[in-house]
Amino acid sequence: MCENGMIIGAESRDPQCRERHGTRCFQCGERYHEDEITYIDGKAICCDCLKEYIEEYGKEHAEDFIEDFISANLDARAEDFWKNDLDEQTKKRLMRNIYQEEKRMRRMSNLRNIEQADRDFCLSSDDYSEFVRERLCW
C-alpha cells in the first residue's frame, strides 16, 4: 500500500533484507519497537502478546504467587472456601467452634458481655418458647 509515493511501513523495514527492524517478540516472533516490548525473565514480549503470556506464566509458576495473592485477597478466598470447599456439616462444626472460642475470649477480656448477647439471642428467637416448653414438659 502506498501513500505519497512511499510504501506504508517501509520506514521500519531494512531495504537490504526487507525484514522489519526492532526487537523480536518471544511469543509471536514479530518485531516491535522497543517501547512496545516488556521484558519478563529476560524474554521480550510485545504488547499484543503480554496478557496471554502473563496468564500462561501465572499458571506455570503459580507456586511463586499463590501465597501472596491469597494474602492480598484473604476475604474473597475465605468466602470462596466457605462456599465451595466445605460441606454443610463441616460449616456447622466450624461455626460452633468459632462461637465457643469467641465466647471464651470475650469472657477472658470482658470486651462485651457475651452472656447478655446470648440472652438477647434466645429471647428474640421464635423457637425459644417452644424450646423452654419442651424442657419443662418432659
Task: List the keywords.
two-stranded antiparallel ribbon, 6 strands, mainly alpha, 138 residues, two-stranded antiparallel sheet, 6 helices
Structural notes for this entry:
This protein is mainly alpha-helical. It is 51% helix and 12% strand. It has helices spanning 50-60, 66-72, 74-84, 88-109, 114-124, 128-136, and strands at residues 2-3, 6-7, 23-24, 31-32, 37-40, 43-46.
Describe the secondary-structure layout.
Layout lengths: L1 E2 L2 E2 L15 E2 L6 E2 L4 E4 L2 E4 L3 H11 L5 H7 L1 H11 L3 H22 L4 H11 L3 H9 L2
Structure described in brief:
This protein has 138 residues and is mainly alpha-helical. It is built from six helices and six strands.
Rg: 32 Å
Largest sheet: 2 strands, antiparallel
Unreliable stretches, pLDDT < 50, 5 or more residues?
none
**How much strand content do the residues show?**
5-15%
Describe the strand arrangement of the main beta sheet, using strand numbers.
1-2
**What integer is the average pLDDT?**
82
